[in-house]
Amino acid sequence: MEDKILQNEHLSYILNELGENHEDYFNAIAPPIVQTSNFLFSTVEDMRHAFSHEYDVYIYSRGNNPTVEILKQKLAALDNAEDCLVVNSGSSAVFNSVLPFVKAGAHIVSVKNPYSWAKKLFDDFLPKFRVTTTYIDGTDILNFERAIQPGTSIIYLESPNSWMFEIQDLKAVSALAKSKNITTIIDNSYCTPLFQKPLDFGIDIAIQSATKYIGGHSDVLGGVICSSKENIRKIFNSEYNTAGNGCTPFNAWLLLRGLRTLPARLKQVNDNTSAFILGLESLDIVEKIIFPFHPSFPQYALAKEQMQGACGLLTIIVKEEYAPYIEQLCNHLKAFKMAVSWGGYESLIIPKIAALNKNNIDFKNEEHRSIRIYVGLESPDYLLNDLKQAVEKAKE
Ligand SMILES: Cc1ncc(COP(=O)(O)O)c(C=O)c1O
């Protein structure tokens, strides 16, 4: 089934043709990096027309740029969206998509553990404008219903949620939000639009950190906002141009290059992750594997219904007796790199204890024994053997 998702005529057309007019740039196969800040006009009338159609023309690269435009068209099509904006990080995608849909005193309902900088936006920045946020367990639609207030203007989702991968029922949440005129925003970085198309479930705005799978090589930051023309125009005319954090032409070019191989990389990551998980199951230190497509996952049925793939991010809970070895185990890894982020070619690991004050670590708490793993493009045996040798060294 994933093969059809990752290889079909429509996808090939989007990735190889859409938005690319080779005659405009000497019939070069690879689009140029149009490295310019501004664009000239031959007549006053042309300039006048451009000033009144800023959203649709090239005036200044903070707004629109031809290299970025090619990327925008492809990303919008992947999400079945009318339009798209590309910004210079995933965090910026959160900022730019949330801000236009709140006014002073508004209220947001958010899943309880959104990406850390989204949480910072809700907890530290928006309260300056009396915008408050209620965090809920998003696995139950009743919690959304209970949390909505008369001033609620946004429901903020992240499905699956990073680290523990809780899932929200996108169809149910979007139906509820529509009935109350609330804008729904989802962080879809985990799945990418290849494995989950939130707009098809009625969600209003789908964002992603393009730094992850779209870039795919851990060498560029980017963010994507996909929605209706009306919403994208609203964002363009306010936060996008005011904050001036649109994607640069060079970064758009790198993201375009990454996008060409996205299906091939996702296939490899998917296959590797399945094989890696099989190997993990026989590893003595592992108490639990948390992964949306693992049959033990509490929301397995919903995951299978909503998502076409689960990619490379998973979490393991180490058995309590082995928990004191976690730090040494991570220090001894060689193939796995200890680093934040994910979605690149390289496999990564973060132990929860790295984010905890040493005095507060309590191994009775399952979360403190968790390690987030990203499986990249390497052979699963290479990764499993690395883990095994690190376990042995840690026990010495
Ligand atoms: C789920 C999720 N959303 C958003 C972001 C932010 O993306 P960026 O690092 O591109 O700003 C991250 C980054 O790790 C993330 O994991």
From TrEMBL:
GO terms for molecular function: transaminase activity. Keywords: Aminotransferase, Pyridoxal phosphate, Transferase. The lineage of its organism: Bacteria, Pseudomonadati, Bacteroidota, Chitinophagia, Chitinophagales. Belongs to the trans-sulfuration enzymes family. Gene3D superfamilies: Aspartate Aminotransferase, domain 1, Type I PLP-dependent aspartate aminotransferase-like (Major domain). The keyword Cell cycle does not apply. This is PLP-dependent aspartate aminotransferase family protein. It comes from Polluticaenibacter yanchengensis. The keyword Transcription does not apply. Its cofactor is pyridoxal 5'-phosphate. It holds the Pfam family Cys_Met_Meta_PP.
